[in-house]
Design a protein that fits this description.
The structure is a homodimer of 497-residue chains. Chain A is built from 20 helices and ten strands. With 497 residues, chain A is α/β, with parallel strands linked by helices. In chain A, helix 5 packs antiparallel against helix 6 and helix 11 packs parallel to helix 20. The model of chain A has no long low-confidence stretch (mean pLDDT 91).
Chain lengths: 497, 497
């Protein structure tokens, strides 16, 4: 892994000075094409050993590029804001949009490598390998969403590192950079090296490769990084767009026993009389209010997802939840077509940015499931893309749950006849007409395709930790009580744990 | 996951009989197109709960297809032959070639799911999840190599299973099928269900999906499986070939400090005088002979890989190894262009089939590294394909090492000048002319491209458990002793462990 980066690579002054002017203008050129075409984002990670010249190289690189379109993220210790969100939140929020270069100085690799380096024995591999698999999936997602992912690892041999740090310590201008690096640090070098080699090996992929740079010689490492960046961006700009692979099976369900599905088997006649509803509503809203004031609630947060047929009553259900909770801790996020900024990022980005702090509730009125519902049915993305979304969504929700977030997902189901009745009512009642559009009628024509998509969605993403609740919603009273009751039970279970 | 498969799906007799004749002829039709075009292999896995009707469905399906082009693999307990090879060997040997349908009744899922079902507590997930990741990578490789992978899971609810097994037990003709299924088995049902749900979720991908079939009704499950198979094969036959994604970085090395590489830094002047060589050769050959007679050697086996520049002396080196070992336990496998049969399988197939039994040594004269050497340089596969090969090869070798195989890989390096000298000698000495061809001269012209490929290969696939040994081979004596010595040391370490 590190053999090449211990050969003592260097570049002499003349070669360096002869190359730099042309290199800089070529870099600026591709940077401008990238910016103008907004073709893709560049995610550039910088990692490596202490004293390997990461910071200086990043500084040189940014001075050669137009700084307005480069974002350098010095990912040091996480802030309070960040600690209250799942681990990957801080990296998601820093992802560059299409057309920009995002440099991550420190990344999702830093902590796993450091932690594994501190542990002795074979046990450390288990945790590290798990993180490695998560990272591989995450970076694959970035790449499939179009990002150009390049990862530079600055390496020094043990002796080179010792020498370099001695030099840095001698010079009063650079001494601060290596404070805390002592003999103990070198002792850990071997373990750090072993852990990084394994990590780099398992996370080097065609779509997100590691490039190991020898960090001894300033001119060499600068040219190396700049040339690789230049070549990679240039090549990608010139590459034709590649079609998506075809999934192994067609996406519509085969007609075997006449469309008996999870949805057709729901008992939509379930209902609640008004007096009982009013009693139950009060009971469960009160219960929810108490739960959100529970002292352990401050260690958790809640993410609710409301999906359902058009006119199934998402809004009404959401209001019954928010009505029970202190307005300062609850936020409703309605999901419509993505903004320009959101379109310039992977599709999950706009949901990541909305994740609540601890002690808070975020309610998504429609959600990331749009990827496997409307985007699938309308053909806004390829079958391969929404197929991979199931796994990506499971990963996303697992991150939330592992962070202590309660993830409650509701599918509000009404019958086709009930939908027609509500559509017509909306057209006739003046204060409801804003709720019905041409699009609703168009969607209704695709009822079966949507039903297929919903069944697949539930089958693929209803997990023990983040289950779907199917809500029979022909009767609004019944639905609202079921939602509140389910939410209370989910929350209670976590707070009692 | 199993919600849909507990709805009580069934197909009535009339519907079934109306559909089957057409279905059978459609199935035969696509099967013949598949066979004639040899477009791809179909890998069809069958798993699920006891009594779910797996066997009967497979029997019906094969009776509907032309049995000459279907291979049913009842993967029961592994044979002695199989136990002496790495875990996946038995599945590799059973993989269908292009144009055929291979049905795996029991598969690489069986053992991991059973084992995890037997263990209680959270610890069981660690091992299962690791296997899951390996399986995902394996199936991705199959799919990227062109296989159509379909996986059917036959499900029964706990009650349905109990009922079904009671029925089977009553009938003397079917009683044998459920011997050993007792109350204890049902107790384990819940854990089995939880484990399979997790496994299915994490291994359902666009390129290798799981299809969950409700196993209660014979007609339903037969139609379900046959229709899905039909649709999937048909769709794939009609799909256009998709171009490979472009890797994030171009594959040639950037010119930063004038091609200083692992190879250029080798000290090719190293040599051994003849008397010293003869002494050393005897010593290490004797040592190797003893090691292969060590009683613990029977628990291990050895896989040697010889790669190197043309005329670097692979043959001579190999003869020095085989000369030291009992001819009954060593086999040399020369790798030339693949046969038709080999071309009909994933590229690693022809190496898997050659893995030695315990107590044996297999020497590969050229190897799977052809994928990242000649295939890369000559453009026989796309950059994306050889890029993914690094990971696939690491997985392959890890499987060997985990099974107790010593994997020793030698790169024999000579200088360009020394190669020229040897080529000329081969042309002049009559009994050596067979060793030199036009191709050797053609390869020589691509010296730099091959050097890049070799450096990347070593950087990406030299692991702690399966390291590369770079052998300075300008002097044949020096090279031979280094190879023998290295091999002895690797073997010694394992036998002493």
């Amino acid at each position: 892994m590190f053999e090449d980066a211990e050969l003592g690579h260097s570049v002499d002054k003349d070669t360096y000075e002869a190359r730099v002017p042309a290199l800089r203008s070529e870099l600026l050129n591709v940077q401008f094409t990238l910016k103008d075409t907004r073709a893709f984002p560049v995610v550039l990670l910088v990692g490596g050993v202490e004293g390997g010249g990461r910071g200086e190289t990043v500084n040189t690189l940014t001075s050669w590029l137009d700084p307005r379109h480069v974002e350098v993220n010095g990912m040091g210790d996480p802030s309070d804001e960040e600690l209250e969100r799942p681990r990957m939140w801080r990296f998601w929020r820093a992802l560059p949009p299409k057309g920009k270069i995002g440099i991550f100085f420190g990344s999702w690799y830093t902590l796993p490598i450091l932690q594994a380096s501190l542990v002795k024995g074979a046990g450390r591999w288990d945790k590290l390998d798990r993180r490695i698999e998560e990272i591989v999936r995450f970076e694959r997602m970035l790449a499939e969403e179009g990002a150009l992912v390049l990862k530079f690892w600055f390496h020094l041999s043990k002796n080179a590192q010792r020498k370099r740090i001695k030099e840095l310590k001698k010079d009063p201008h650079t001494r601060w950079r290596v404070s805390g690096v002592d003999e103990d640090y070198f002792k850990k070098y071997d373990r750090f090296r072993e852990v990084s080699a394994r990590t780099i090996r398992h996370t080097s992929t065609a779509l997100a490769p590691w490039l190991v740079v020898e960090g001894v010689d300033r001119r060499y490492r600068e040219l190396f990084v700049a040339e690789e960046l230049l070549r990679a961006v240039k090549t990608r700009l010139e590459s034709p767009k590649v079609a998506r692979p075809t999934p192994a099976r067609p996406s519509d369900a085969p007609e075997v026993d006449g469309r008996r599905t999870l949805l057709t088997e729901l008992d939509l006649t379930k209902k609640l009389a008004k007096p009982k509803y009013e009693k139950d509503l009060e009971k469960w809203q009160g219960h929810l209010a108490l739960l959100t004031r529970h002292k352990r609630f401050r260690e958790h947060s809640v993410v609710c997802v409301f999906e359902g047929n058009d006119a199934a009553g998402k809004g009404g259900n959401i209001r019954r939840v928010t009505g029970a909770v202190d307005a300062r801790v609850v936020r409703v996020v309605p999901i419509a077509a993505p903004t320009d900024e959101e379109k310039a990022h992977p599709y999950l980005w706009r949901f990541w940015r909305q994740l609540p702090r601890r002690g808070n509730i975020t309610i998504f009125d429609r959600s990331w499931y749009g990827r496997v519902l409307v985007e699938r049915v309308e053909g806004f993305c390829s079958p391969y893309d929404w197929e991979r979304a199931y796994g990506e969504i499971n990963d996303f929700e697992e991150e939330m749950v592992n962070h202590g977030i309660v993830v409650a997902k509701f599918w509000l189901a009404i019958s086709k006849a009930e939908q027609l009745r509500r559509f017509k009512e909306r057209e006739q009642v003046s204060f409801k007409t804003f709720k019905i559009t041409e699009e609703d009628w168009r969607n209704r024509k695709k009822w079966d395709a949507y039903s297929d998509a919903v069944c697949d969605m539930v089958a693929r993403t209803s997990t023990t930790k983040a289950p779907w609740t199917m809500v029979e919603a022909n009767d609004k009273y019944y639905a609202r009580v079921k939602v509140l009751k389910t939410l209370c039970e989910r929350l209670e279970k976590v707070l009692d744990d």
